[in-house]
Amino acid sequence: MASSSSSSDLPPQQHQVFINFRGEDLRLGFVSHLVEALENDNIKVFIDNYADKGEPLETLLTKIQESRIALAIFSGKYTESTWCLRELAMIKDCVEKGNLVAIPIFYKLDPSTVRGVRGKFGDAFRDLEERDVLKKKEWKKALKWIPDLIGITVHDKSPESEILNEIVREVKKVLKKVPLKGSRNFFVEPSEGSRKVAVDRSEIIDTRTSAEGEKDKTFGIKQQLKELEDKLDLIKYKGTRVIGVVGMPGIGKTTLLKELYKTWKGKFSRYALIDQIRGKSNNFRLECLPTLLLEKLLPELNNPQIDSVEEPYKTHKGLLRERKVLVVLDDVSEREQIYALLGKYDLQNKHEWIKDGSRIVIATNDKSLLKGLVHDTYVVRQLNHRDGLQLFRYHAFHDDQAITPKVDFMKLSDEFVHYARGHPLALKILGRELYEKNMKHWETKLKILAQSPTTYIGEVVQVSFDELSMAQKDAFLDIACFRSQDVDYVESLLVSSDPGSAEAIKALKNKFLIDTCDGRVEMHDLLYTFSRELDLRASTQGGSKQRRLWLQQDIINVQQKTMGAADVRGIFLDLSEVKGETSLDREHFKNICNLRYLKFYNSHCPQECKTNNKINMPDGLELPLKEVRCLHWLKFPLEELPNDFDPINLVDLKLPYSEIERLWEGVKDTPVLKWVDLNHSSKLCSLSGLSKAQNLQRLNLEGCTSLESLRDVNLMSLKTLTLSNCSNFKEFPLIPENLEALYLDGTVISQLPDNVVNLKRLVLLNMKDCKMLENIPTCVGELKALQKLILSGCLKLKEFPEINKSSLKILLLDGTSIKTMPQLPSVQYLCLSRNDQISYLPVGINQLTYVPELPPTLQYLDAHGCSSLKNVATPLARIVSTVQNHCTFNFTNCGNLEQAAKEEITSYAQRKCQLLPDARKHYNEGLNSEALFSTCFPGCEVPSWFGHEVVGSLLQRKLLPHWHDKRLSGIALCAVVSFLDNQDQISCFSVTCTFKIKAEDKSWVPFTCPVGIWTREGDQKDKIESDHVFIAYISCPHSIRCLEDENSDKCNFTEASLEFTVTSGTSGVGVFKVLKCGLSLVYENDKNKNSSLEAKYEVPIEVSFQKPEHGIMEEEKNKNKRRSDDRRPKKKRKTRRDDIMIISTVTQTCGASVASRMEDKLSG
């Protein structure tokens, strides 16, 4: 109680903390020590000692209202005091109104005793002589409500000093977020998975409550709820159903579960929502959890008791099994918490206390906790752009009436929504931070975020991060340095000397701190920002003190010993940010004994033109590094790596454009070395240092003009070998049988040896521009795995042998002197351009592009309005590198497409864009910009593989030097288009891009590219129901080829401007809006990378294509079959709204006819 007699101490001014306690129990002991600890930390406290004598006791209630934090200390005799209870009721009232934070402290009492008003504590309450029944009922509510907040428990054996320090820490943590009392921005609200905290409006984390008690509006939850309900369906699933809800921290799992609980509890007579399980378990122990569930499922029981942690409901099993129940468990962080609440179980053994037909939902940040415990899992995704924008507007403008803000604010709103990448928590915090701020403040904030990103979700992510093991924490921070790299590459770096890292990567994925997509490791932008922030303050996180350095000054500080060298784990220096040349001292790396990653790279110029951005070592270099996994050093200035360098843990070595002549002196153990890239190291003449690299998988020696052979190199595990433009390489190398890709283009090899037949796994052989090559031995036909053979530009090659046993699919003979062609039964693409000598082609050669009834020939797919469509095949279609123009896949208004389906369409589009250049570059001079491939589907994000992305319809970039070099094959374009709710029905529209490039004379060179076309047959009209993603691949236009010729020897940036527009046959004004757009420059395949997509989409050696399985009725299949058999021209068929329109043809007229029909409608 805060109203007993006290000393005459002077009250502190503007107190911050009000302490509610029972004086008889605590005044002279625990409370006096607590007051001292708080005041020693400059925290101003109010207890009744500071009240003026003679003032009415009601004054104490006013002091609560003036406070920012209330500490409610429950002790054994607490309920004997009516004043303690009156204060507690006032505290509850203030917290509910959002004016106060309450932190309960349980002094030698179990929280369940307080919440249940049990034992002597409860007896004393019931014995109170209070005539006002309503008031006593209000006190009981407060006793049950306040302990539900996460608090602090003081046990008999608790060290008091530690408890006092913990309370002070928690108070300071809250005070940092709470504005001064009286500020109009003062507000309190609960955070997801944590204590109710008081924060400024700019930092509110969860549910805002208005004066009328109306909660925050939710956006985008309707679709999520529908998808979750489908997994719980009572009719479809008769037995008990357990569903997991997972997703990254702060993504909205709690909001979704509360909405589900509110909607579904009416379907059951008994229901329970247990939230904040992580915090309750940490503060109250596991034993309290089943009691909480019993209280809600069996409210008729007075003071229910559990039997044991192993079998908590043994006594009450009969009562519980009488009714079906709905149980929702939120914020689970350990598997033991699930067992404590539900008992130990698995899906094979039913719960003994749960009646069939019940529904259980478990939400967690860690998917691995649910293994074997749930029937299905629902992943909560980030919001799409439209829902994210609505959420942001709601908090930034208090847009309850959905009044559209000013245009300038809306444009900036798009930028902020794009920054948050669909994360609802970040959107809320950003919106409230910008509330009532002027335009200048918004613009400044955007610039600050561009230069120094802020995570905004640090608090919720920190909880997950703190639960990681030390190995997992290091893995998380390491992966942030290599995000978007191949999974195999990242795993190899982490696992090379620490096998436990493989499990660490898996754990991080399960906790949604990383993700894998198309064979790459990805990380949400906000998590990446968090990792960088965390790395800067690593020494204060109670974990590893190791640092990863990105700034030149930090690297200098290591040399000057102002930063601990032993704590440096990685150095990543972008040489494009280093002005001029810089020198390192000989002993710079001497004491960096734990360095694992060393990268000196240039992000500006991909061709590494001669610049002054170099690292010099005038006095040589000591490199006593034993822990290094990744060593990348652009333009390494020495002739060899120092003698003290130990590559025992080295996985990846990259020294492009270096001065190196040999790797190192003598032979060194390299047991885990997998990738070596020494491209354009023109002085390299010896590779003897690789004689023990038994695990070497990829070796890139392109442009190593002094190299003559591969003597002494261990090639037993090699899969990819690149010797392109090694002009002194004269003999075919002796290479192992497991090689998969061999690049010998530009060498002076004159013949292939007979033992080439031993390369049983060779898939690709590139001998382009081998000017001395005269013949191809017949044994090439024995290479059963060979699918692609490139002999372009081999001028002396006059004959090509018959190939009967090989599975060769692609044969490029352009620019050769071949006169006659043998039968090539397996070849699907043959190029003979620039060959004036050819005089004979075998029968059927003109039909090499035609494979009837097979998915690779599909040129038009119209699935518009298939509202029941959810999934697509994986892969969506096999891709043959053959001549295919105007391939279009349309998924408009397929509103139920699942995320996995959209990702598959996106993945297919990416690989299609990569493969089409191979088919086009050998015969098409690119005089026109035409859409060779296009697709559209419901969505709101530009795929991650687009290198340039921006919010809005205008993308302006400075393209890197040489962006238009000879490897540029085409351009991939993307537009995210919003179709406003008030649109009229339309029959057609088109998405186009006007691409402008600034030439040398400062004039703009424009060309227009089609991105997407949508049209209905005849007089049909329809509405587009949501945001859609449009993707197109455009062949490289003539204007870019001209730029290449004019500027091939210049290392300059190029200004480019892309504007995306949407037009329809009607006016279309205000109906369409381009939300985002993207650009990706498509080059010839990187010969040094084995894309994980190739195996997924390219035609395998032995393949039997099946008819499409999804969305085609059996009758439709038969129709297609008959049309194929008689080989009559195919026509586009009308279908019902929920059918799929398919045209399979070898001609190239389908896409053109669609385009011409569209042009007619637009002009007419």
TrEMBL record:
Biased composition (Basic and acidic residues): 1108-1128
Record's catalysed reaction(s): NAD(+) + H2O = ADP-D-ribose + nicotinamide + H(+)
Entry superkingdom: Eukaryota
One function term, GO molecular function aspect: NAD+ nucleosidase activity, cyclic ADP-ribose generating
Keywords: Hydrolase, Leucine-rich repeat, NAD, Nucleus, Repeat
Location of the region described as Disordered in the Swiss-Prot/TrEMBL record: 1108-1139
Domain TIR positions: 13-175
Pfam families: C-JID, LRR_3, NB-ARC, TIR, WHD_ROQ1
EC number, UniProt record: 3.2.2.6
Enzyme class name: hydrolase
Biological process, per Gene Ontology: defense response to bacterium; signal transduction
Gene3D superfamilies: Helical domain of apoptotic protease-activating factors, P-loop containing nucleotide triphosphate hydrolases, Ribonuclease Inhibitor, Toll/interleukin-1 receptor homology (TIR) domain
Entries under SMART domains matching the protein: TIR
PANTHER family, per database record: DISEASE RESISTANCE PROTEIN RPS4-RELATED (PTHR11017:SF277), LEUCINE-RICH REPEAT-CONTAINING PROTEIN (PTHR11017)
Protein known as: ADP-ribosyl cyclase/cyclic ADP-ribose hydrolase
Species for this entry: Arabidopsis lyrata subsp. lyrata
